[in-house]
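lol so apparently i was supposed to do this last week
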Amino acid sequence: MAGHLFLSSSSTIDYENDNEDDWIMKPTPWESFLYQPPSWMEPLDWQKVFHPILSQLETQNSEPGTFPIHVDLGAGDGGFVTARAQSHPDIRFIAVERLLGRARKIAKKACRNQLDNVRALRIEASYVVEFLIPPHSIQAITILFPDPWPKRRHQDRRLIQSHFLVQCARCLRPDGWIAIKTDDAAYFEQIVEMLAACQGLEHWKDADPEQLIPELTDFERDFLKAGRSIHFLTARPISARRDASGGKWIEQSSSFSEEEKKQLRQFQSQQKSKGVSMAPGVNE
Ligand SMILES: C[S@@+](CC[C@H](N)C(=O)[O-])C[C@H]1O[C@@H](n2cnc3c(N)ncnc32)[C@H](O)[C@@H]1O
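anyway here it is w/ S-adenosylmethionine bound
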């Protein structure tokens, strides 16, 4: 039985494999950490994403359905997310990365370190926040050293845009937050301006990065070694929303409205015309 990740909620995970023949018929264990939803057209079902560990963790630590989920967008090789998952076993982490090689590295790291609270998702980050995350289901979004696209003609390729921030606000729980770090001063300035104009989020000025996310990312280590300044910013859903919902979570919707479906089709055809595959597989 060595080398197989069991999918029954009551079973344990065995990461060892000393019999090569075992690999022939069984999934490679790390692939279970690279999550592929049954459909890329429906919002994620968190219960399924984190199966089989969910029920075990929930009974140990909190009320069912209240488990915090943190999403790291553009997770790179996953050094940050795996370090955080190690020190926060009570939080579930989604590492979103569009490069397959990097998404695989994250899954392998999580598997090697037996981090059952991590799932890698190989997909475009803007697609995840707009179409895959159910509303108000996330406690934290981290965007650490997003590609800066410094040339003016490439700036529309930057991940953080006004519409993207609105979608992040949609994903966050009333007690949620978003943290952004970059070494690019011009990009940072642009983000601050977009945030000031964003109706769903407010700048959380007194957040302390050392307290909130003390773990360094791989890129951050390199930038610090090179003596570069790091810019840090956090935001939270506006208080009006927290008050309006009475501080309670808003119900997750299980399917898209007609308007959302229309936006989804438009987004997908735009991506297709740019040659971007929206539903990549493990082996693509
Ligand atoms: C500069 S690296 C930073 C990686 C990591 N956050 C760190 O600080 O070490 C940016 C990462 O984001 C990924 N990325 C860039 N744009 C993305 C997008 N739109 N969706 C998902 N991943 C993206 C890149 O492939 C790359 O791995």
